[in-house]
Amino acid sequence: MSEKESLLRHTQRRVFVTGIISAAILATLAWVGWDAALDAYANRLAEEIRQHYTLKLTQDRQVWQQQAERLRAQIEFMRLGELPSEERREHLRAFFTAQGEYQDFAAVLVAHANGQPILTIGCYTLLLKGLSLIRAKRPNRHVKGDCPGEEAVYWLTHTPLWLGKEGKGLALFGTALDHSYLTRLAKGRDHLYLLHGGRIITATGSIDHGLLVSLGEVPKRTDSSLLIALPIDSNKHMDGSVLVVHHTLDPLLPMRAVLATVGVSALAIFLLISLVLGNSLRQHLLRLAALAKGARAFTTRFTRDDTWRQSLHLAQLRTDEISRLAVTLDRLMQVAETRQREQLIYRQTLDLLDEVVVELDLTGRVLCASSAWARVCGSDGDIVGKRLTDLLDPDDVPSFEVMLRRLSVNDKLQASTRLRLITGQVVRWLEIRLVRSPESRNLRGVLRDVTQSYLQEQRITHMALHDALTELPNRVLLEDRLRVALRLAARNQSKVALGFLDLDHFKHVNDNLGHKTGDALLKALAQRLRANLRVGDTLARWGGDEFVVLLPQIPSYTAAQNAAAKLKAAVESPIEVEGQEFHLTFSAGFALYPDDATQPEQLLAHADQAMFYAKAQGRNALCFFAEMAQKGPSKNEIQLQQRLAAAVREARIVNHYQPLVDAKSRRVIGVECLARWTDPDLGPISPATFIPMAESLGIIRELGQLVWHRALADARQWRDIGLDLRLAVNLSKRQLFKPNFTEELLANVLAEGLSPQSITLEITESTALLDIESATDRLAELKAAGFRLAIDDFGTGYSSLSQLHEISADELKIDISFVRRIDKPDGERLIQTIVGLAASLGLKTVAEGVEDAHVADKLTDMGVDTLQGWYCGRPMPPEAVVDWVRQWPQQSEKQGVR
Ligand code: C2E
Ligand code: CA
Ligand code: CA
């Protein structure tokens, strides 16, 4: 703001202009008033003067009339008129001459009634003119005489005169209204002029020629004098003889002086106003200016420093609106300052975060980024203004652009993705989460370096998909590849062969030569098999001594037979391990797509059945499902299936319970329910055999119901005698997808008077993730109903971090196969990874298959929460549980449990 535009300047200008205008108005008013007053005065004076002279003239005329009458009386008394005409003239002349001293008459005429003059004295023409006027009864009583050498106006007075026997005559007298008369008439300093026919006849004193010019405009007033005209004859108009009075006015205040006085007073008033009002106004304006200055200072620095404080002090010198404004402003500034400080703190806090807080425009250009950018992305260059896409791995750019587009067209309000960022030689994995801010149309979000967890996930994924011993794909990967192969074959109308290989009598190797040798032999065998397969084929380890081969794009049945025979031959040639030679054989079962089955599960089941059949034929046999179908199913298998169906029907499946022990306190916290089936002839059969069989026979739901109701009844009994045990129950895939499953479970639990919080439902990892969408929904439903959820056999399935996030589980059960390998580096690392992962997701961990104190302690040290295994207790019938729980504290002490 320039000085010119200041409020003070503006006000000064206004005050000045107002002063000038009011002075002018004042002067005009004074002038008009003065003039009017002067006019009134002059009019009054003129009237007085007019009256004075009118009266004077009238009085003079009366005197002259009286004189004329007196002369007539004397003439008549002396009977001069009656004298004979010759004497009469002489006597009359003598009479008038004798009277000359006191008479005012300059001309006399005596005449007969018919106008015949008898005697004339003075100007003859004047007398004749006067006579004719009187005879004509014209009212003019003054007349201008034109006798040579004399120009004067006369006042005519006449009277009748007795002429004896001649009858009545008349006498006419003319009084000269000359210089001496006017001098006598003039009052004070008045100058008188006698005009006739517009011409000056005579005047008192010298004739003012300047005045002569203005005589035409009488009456007239000037500053110093008045000009008044009045007729000599009172009842005559101005066209006769006129008396003009030039009256000098008493000295008055001149107009210039009046104007000057008015000007000076206006100036004085103006000065007074400016002094009083202007000064206080100035004070206010200065205070306002101080406020403005302070506010300006604040907006540039955002702190109320000394400048501001001084300005504030100045503005608060008085208590009025300005000071109140100052107080309000101070409060506002305080708020702004606090906000500023808060923002700074937020920024500093943001800088502490590991995440980068960014703002992007819709093209992915970085508008601002928190300082964590340098740390997280290892680049110290300024990112602001650059496009994020320029820094990404080219493979990730399209998906990022799609995300930006979807955000920009309001398709999505927020989105997140993982991208690779390339800085120099380093590739980092970033998780980027963006929201569109509706007010600015920009994108705000958070970038996080997830390289570590990504690599960890990769490792887990690899471990999850591969068998640790042989490095071959495991079941999960196999099933995945099988599904892909079938889809491809369906499109190409080709065949797929799937084979189950089970080593004959491998148990002997383990039992006689130990696990170590067994493991080495399995590794060597895997290599041998692998070497005899083509590139696109898959060899997977199914578990123990079972392998599966997947041969996609097999042209024919015969080709499959040839491939199988080749494998068989490859295995039969001796294998050398640790200096020993082994001769191995296997039983193999094959099934073909689409000949034997079109669904993956079916194909697996059929290959398995063919393998079972081959084994039943006396081992070292190769069987194709098609052949088996012709020959009919294996007698043993069918027998077993029938026995299982009967056992389920007759409810001969019983429950055993295995304790779950808290790792730190070593207190029993619950039991896992495990199904047991003992056939009267065949003896105990492992659930690992009969559970899958029940699944493929379609009786798993009945079996599950049996186990479930028994388990609830047992749990109720324990609770009734005061044992507080959590109950863990295994669920199979088919059970999970039963309609109204959750409602039923909840109803059962409540019917027994138990709470769902005391029940843990165990679902294998592969089941939980199989059909991720619907499984997730169902699990969320169970969770919402109050049940605890455990992911069983964790590590054998394929779960990514994000999937684990989505499943609302409470605990992870580390698979027995990992616990077995705890003393090997990879096993230990894997358990550690799982424990870390669980902790980061807020999940508890349970370790299965804890067989000795060493493993128990090691797991405890690694942070596992719950232990389960023979070391704590084997699965036991329900009636043994109460005693076991009671003796456990002493036993655990005896065992030297910490
Ligand atoms: P799982 O749920 O992982 O159960 C743990 C298995 O490990 C049980 O085998 C148990 O006896 C065994 N085990 C426990 N501690 C040790 C130990 O210290 N060392 C060794 N070597 N093994 C130990 P089990 O009873 O043979 O059950 C096998 C699988 O059958 C179970 O694995 C579970 O998946 C399934 N299963 C058992 N009962 C049921 C059931 O009622 N319903 C369903 N759906 N599945 C069941
Ligand atoms: Ca289980
Ligand atoms: Ca398990």
Helices, by number, come to 28
The major pleated sheet works out as: 8 strands, mixed, barrel
SS content category: alpha+beta
Which range best describes the helical content: under 10%, 10-25%, 25-40%, 40-55%, 55-70% or over 70%? 40-55%
Going across the biggest sheet, name each strand in turn.
23-24-26-27-28-29-30-31
Rg, nearest Å: 72 Å
Distance between the termini: 82 Å
- What is the number of E strands? 31
Describe this structure in words.
51% of the residues lie in helices and 21% in strands. The strands form six sheets. An eight-stranded mixed barrel has the order 23-24-26-27-28-29-30-31, surrounded by six helices. It has a five-stranded antiparallel beta sheet with strand order 2-1-5-4-3, with helices on both faces. Strands 7-6-10-9-8 form a five-stranded antiparallel beta sheet, covered by helices on one side. The chain contains 28 helices and 31 strands. A hairpin with a 2-residue loop joins strand 19 (575-577) and strand 20. The model has no long low-confidence stretch (mean pLDDT 85). The protein starts with 6 loop residues before the first helix and ends with a helix. The protein is α+β, with helices and mostly antiparallel strands. It is rod-shaped, with a radius of gyration of 72 Å. Bound molecules: ligand C2E and calcium ion (CA) (2 copies).
